[in-house]
Amino acid sequence: xxxxxxxxxxxxxxxxxxxxxxxxxxxxxxxxxxxxxxxxxxxxxxxxxxxxxxxxxxxxxxxxxxxxxxxxxxxxxxxxxxxxxxxxxxxxxxxxxxxxxxxxxxxxxxxxxxxxxxxxxxxxxxxxxxxxxxxxxxxxxxxxxxxxxxxxxxxxxxxxxxxxxxxxxxxxxxxxxxxxxxxxxxxxxxxxxxxxxxxxxxxxxxxxxxxxxxxxxxxxxxxxxxxxxxxxxxxxxxxxxxxx
Length: 244
Description:
By secondary structure, the protein is an alpha/beta fold. It has helices spanning 8-15, 29-49, 76-81, 93-106, 142-151, 168-181, 198-207, and strands spanning 64-68, 85-89, 111-113, 127-133, 153-164, 212-221, 226-230, 236-242. The chain is 34% helix and 22% strand. The protein has an eight-stranded mixed β-sheet with strand order 3-2-1-4-5-8-6-7. It starts with 7 loop residues before the first helix and ends with a strand.
């Protein structure tokens, strides 16, 4: 039976906000705020793994990168600027139309496809890096999703997953505060039941052969009013995984 990672309720929710992806004061403003940190984590791990210099103007040159659930292309564009051959996929066609238009206006050669990971054309070459950022908590089944991602990963490739931990603190801050008090995200964006602990994610990736893993937390400082990478993984975390 063919796997299906689509959650129609989730997709319809994001479809409603597809025109606002590049509004850094709109519904996705937190994603805009944390994108420099997401990019710093990705760049560091990928450069170390592939023995590239982070100070090079195009350190990701020659690497094929797939951004799964790319939305409007917030990560695809900086990855492309670093020299990567980037493909972004998203099952919400409206998101892809926005991403394409924005990249074309800037002259960025990014391939965008309106599909879920299981619908990615089989003839495409495997990818050196797969990015699944803020998406695993929105799919129908995380096991199927990760299985399909790893199936498209090159033998010496790596995967980046960024998501929310499943803790009381993540419920209080990631849902109640973020969606109902601070309006950092539209109400109904997240379901705590779909959050995944780092331990569970680690086990799932190890089961799929990606046993070499590194993790970093993400926190917000109310005093400085800014996000920063942290050792605390109680709410948000980033994970990098490769084959041992």
